[in-house]
Amino acid sequence: MLWQADPETGQAMSEDTIRDQVLSFSVLGEDTTKSLMTWALYHLSAHPEIQRQVQEEIDAITGGDQTRPLSATELSHLQVLDRVLTETLRITLPIPNVARYAASEETLLGKYRVPQYSIIVLLREITHRDPASWPDPERFDPDRWLPERIESVVPGSYAPFGGGIRACIGQGFAHMEALTFLSTLLRAADWRVCTCQRPPRSEEPSPRTTQNKKGCKRNTRRSCALACRGDPEGEAIDGWG
């Protein structure tokens, strides 16, 4: 694919272009994908009823097997988790703003003419929470993305990966990576927002030590949280997350 010629120009990508695309795909996509997965876990921790829906969907596909890897086809059937990721990207997107410059003298934004070479900042964190486009925009609601409701989404109001020729080339990979990662964690644990008090930094245990800490309740699954991870008995944590 890297060496295929462009159907319009007949030219193949230069080595510099290939290097830049690979850099964008592998390096720049790492931090944003981690942010997406972290925020998704936070929202699921804060909404245990939605987390349970996701876990039941995963269990229905795996038969309750907490270790078997899911195939790409099985991952595509995780519709509730897919909606969770989509809503996470709406309300807590990893890159809230993006900048572009006006390349020509005829750049128009609605009725406004933009001087050539002007910097234009797109505030996606604003458009993603605009009450004119989103009912109750501050509420985390994956059901916004149900098939019968998605048609009501205002065009242009949701663009976590950008659009047009400058759209993120790694969006498909990032989405599949997040599905794989989260489906694995959610099979093995119940996640919740931790209420444990973090000790002063000078008193923090080594990440390799095991520190007893009360306050994490016993659960049928391994009990976990964003800040502390409980053992099956619900009292031991491995350092501090």
Describe the structure in your own words.
With 241 residues, this protein is an alpha+beta fold. The protein has two domains: 16-93 and 129-189, no CATH class; 194-241, no CATH class. The protein contains seven helices and eight strands. The chain has helices spanning 15-46, 48-62, 72-76, 79-91, 124-127, 147-150, 171-188; strands at 97-101, 108-109, 112-113, 119-123, 189-192, 210-212, 222-225, 236-238. Strands 1-4 form a two-stranded antiparallel ribbon. Strands 2-3 form a two-stranded antiparallel sheet. Strands 5-7 form a two-stranded parallel sheet. Strand 2 (108-109) and strand 3 form a beta hairpin. Helix 1 (15-46) packs across helix 4 and helix 1 (15-46) runs parallel beside helix 7 (171-188). The longest helix has 32 residues, at 15-46. It is globular, with a radius of gyration of 22 Å. Residues 201-225 and 227-241 have low confidence and may be disordered.
Please describe the structure with a list of short key phrases separated by commas or semicolons.
single chain, 241 residues, alpha+beta, two-stranded antiparallel sheet, globular, disordered C terminus
Extract low-pLDDT stretches: 201-225, 227-241
**What is the tally of helical segments?**
7
Report the major sheet: 2 strands, antiparallel
Question: What is the strand arrangement across the widest sheet?
Answer: 1-4
Overall geometry: globular
Record the SSE blueprint:
Elements: H1 15-46, H2 48-62, H3 72-76, H4 79-91, E1 97-101, E2 108-109, E3 112-113, E4 119-123, H5 124-127, H6 147-150, H7 171-188, E5 189-192, E6 210-212, E7 222-225, E8 236-238
Parallel strand pairs: 5-7
Antiparallel strand pairs: 1-4, 2-3, 6-8
